[in-house]
Amino acid sequence: MHTPVPAAWLLIALGALSGGYCLVRMFTGTGRQRRTAGGEALMGFGTVVMALPTTLVTVPRPAWALCTVVFAAAALGALRYARDSVHQLHHLVGAGAMAYMSVVMATAPAGHGSAGFAPLTTALLGYFAGYVLWTGARLVPDPGGGPPPTGAAHRPELARACRLSMGLAMCAMLLAV
């Protein structure tokens, strides 16, 4: 991607931390929570791969093809559960966006991003910008809420903060593709 190296390292750190936190949630949650956290962990670690600075590491084209297959499969998995949860629709859009960016990176000259299909990039950027604003507004604590759940893995505000940071990362990557 065309991300400056310091910004790329920040995206890598953000993706790794978010992905790691989501893995903890995945192994301590139940049913739907595990599925949701697993999809979010995949997005976090996918961000790590996509944000690698091209000045330091050149990701081979077969790796981008593998990323496309993995994210397309994740999108199909999210589609399967989309009627159970609106959040799965978000996972569908996110996995589709990651697959799209993988295709752009696979077809770009010398591993550098290109503009891709500008209307699709713009639509995805608009979606994720709206998602960031919506998620950010939901971070405000509920004053009448009960006692916080025990354990950091089950704190809803941490999950929302993770989703907010991944939405911001998607915006940054879409701007750089």
Describe the 3D structure.
It is a single chain. The protein has 177 residues and is mainly α. It has one domain (5-141, 150-176). Helices cover 72% and strands 0% of the residues. It contains six helices and no strands. Helix 2 (31-50) runs parallel beside helix 4 (86-107) and helix 3 (61-80) runs antiparallel to helix 4 (86-107). The relative contact order is 0.16. The model has no long low-confidence stretch (mean pLDDT 84).
Structural class: mainly alpha
- Strand segment count: 0
Task: Please report which band the strand proportion falls in: under 5%, 5-15%, 15-25%, 25-35%, 35-45% or over 45%.
Answer: under 5%
Reported for the largest beta sheet, the result is: none
**Low-pLDDT segments:** none
Please give the count of helices: 6
Mean pLDDT: 84
What is the terminal-to-terminal distance? 6 Å
- Taken together, the total number of domains comes to 1
SSE succession: HHHHHH
* Overall shape: globular
Radius of gyration: 16 Å
Helical coverage, percent range: over 70%
Give the structure's gist in a few sentences.
With 177 residues, this protein is mainly alpha-helical. The chain has helices at 5-28, 31-50, 61-80, 86-107, 118-137, 156-176.
Quickly list its features:
0% strand; mainly alpha; 177 residues; 6 helices; single chain
